[in-house]
Design brief:
Strand order of the largest sheet: 4-3-2-5-6-7
Number of strands: 9
Number of helices: 4
CATH architecture: 3-Layer(aba) Sandwich
CATH class: Alpha Beta
CATH topology: Rossmann fold
Strand content: 25-35%
Oligomer: single chain
Order of helices and strands: EHEHEEEHEEEEH
Bound molecules: 1-O-pyrophosphono-5-O-phosphono-alpha-D-ribofuranose
Shape: globular
Number of domains: 1
Largest sheet: 6 strands, mixed
Structural class: alpha/beta
Length: 184
């Protein structure tokens, strides 16, 4: 039985079928690109990437390993400094591995830029990024996205890992939140 949509939801932007189809396409592309690389290590960025990571990795047909990191960012509004702090590192060493950073969203780009710079300094064999969603209108710094799922408009989105005040992450779709919920 389908559960009722939370009242804070304005409209669904990407339904479950569209997301799952795109995740399968991304997994097929990644599997083909890394078919000969036995050392593929996917690094998911907590918390937001946990659902995308779970679905993506289960669809990969090439050998791979899974790890996570956690970050903390200082402020997301107009005054955001873009400062990002690593609060939990990977368990796996990344040197000489084929690294694929997995993110749920690129917004200002500060987080992905920090991740790429941080991991590049550890000398992986290669480094690419896989991001499910992007809000190009919000970009403050260039962020390298090698595999992108969808572009989104500049509205607050929740679901499929994305949250508002840590809520709505486990919705199977991605939806716009009602403006009155987040604009005060
Ligand atoms: C979100 C998202 C990305 C980041 C993108 O994480 O998961 O990591 O913001 O934003 P940016 O491009 O502006 O840097 P958030 O800090 O909300 O933490 P969470 O993943 O735990 O929800």
């Amino acid at each position: 039985m389908a559960s009722e949509r939370p009242k804070a939801i304005e409209r669904v932007l990407l339904d479950e079928t569209a997301i799952q189809r795109r995740v399968a396409e991304l997994a097929a592309q990644i599997s083909a690109d890394y078919a000969d690389d036995a050392k593929l290590l996917l690094v998911g960025v907590l918390k937001g990437a946990f659902i995308f990571m779970a679905d993506l990795t289960r669809r990969l047909t090439t050998e791979h390993y899974v790890d996570f990191i956690a970050l903390s960012s200082y402020g997301k509004g107009a005054t955001s400094s873009g400062a990002v702090r690593l609060i939990m590192d990977t368990r796996e060493p990344v040197t000489d591995r084929h690294l694929l950073i997995v993110e749920d969203i690129v917004d200002t780009g500060y987080t992905l830029d920090y991740l790429v710079r941080t991991f590049r300094s550890r000398r992986p064999a290669s480094l690419r990024t896989c991001v499910l969603t992007s809000k190009p209108a919000r970009r403050k710094v260039d962020a390298e996205v090698d595999y992108l799922g969808f572009e989104l408009p500049d509205v607050w989105v929740v679901g499929y890992g994305l949250d508002y005040a840590d809520r709505y992450r486990t919705l199977p779709y991605i939806a716009a939140l009602k403006r009155e919920v987040y604009v005060r």
